[in-house]
Design goal:
The chain is mainly α and 148 residues long. 59% of the residues lie in helices and 11% in strands. The chain is extended, with a radius of gyration of 22 Å.
């Protein structure tokens, strides 16, 4: 005599639909955000601005630490710092305590650029979130923070 088991069956997976995938949606939002950013701040990329903002907050910091603080890998932060230096926004020097470390600091021009664009950067965020209600925008930011 056979017995039936009451094991629950897994629900069938939904078919893959690109426009419902988190990575695809995040990339589309990022593309929109970058277009808005460039309209407001055409002189630098959003990654350069993020690094400059963090530099202005911290002052002198190692290049690797700056990369960690702005969530960029070693190769990316090196390129960003090189471009900030080329633009006159940052200066680098060997750490006197450890010659293997490269210290980065904002220049006077870098601090001026950050002050000049800080308000525009806030406008970029507001415009990016504009399709949402204030409550939805707060929720989105909270959820995104939870995913990082």
């Amino acid at each position: 005599m056979s017995q039936k088991t009451d094991t629950p069956t897994k629900p069938a997976k939904a078919a893959y639909q690109l426009d419902q995938q988190v990575g695809f949606l995040l990339r589309r939002v990022q593309q929109r955000h970058l277009a808005i950013f460039f309209r407001h701040i055409p002189d630098m990329t959003s990654t350069q601005f993020a690094a400059l903002a963090k530099l202005c907050e911290l002052g002198s910091v190692s290049q690797n630490e700056l990369g960690r603080r702005v969530a960029m890998d070693v190769a990316t932060i090196k390129g960003v710092v090189d471009r900030l230096r080329a633009g006159g926004y940052a200066k680098t020097e060997k750490d006197p305590q450890d010659q293997r470390r490269l210290l980065v600091r904002p220049t006077t021009a870098g601090r001026r650029a950050f002050q000049k664009y800080s308000s525009a950067a806030l406008d970029v965020t507001a415009e990016t979130l504009d399709p949402l209600s204030p409550k939805e925008a707060d929720k989105l930011l909270s959820l995104l923070s939870k995913l990082t």
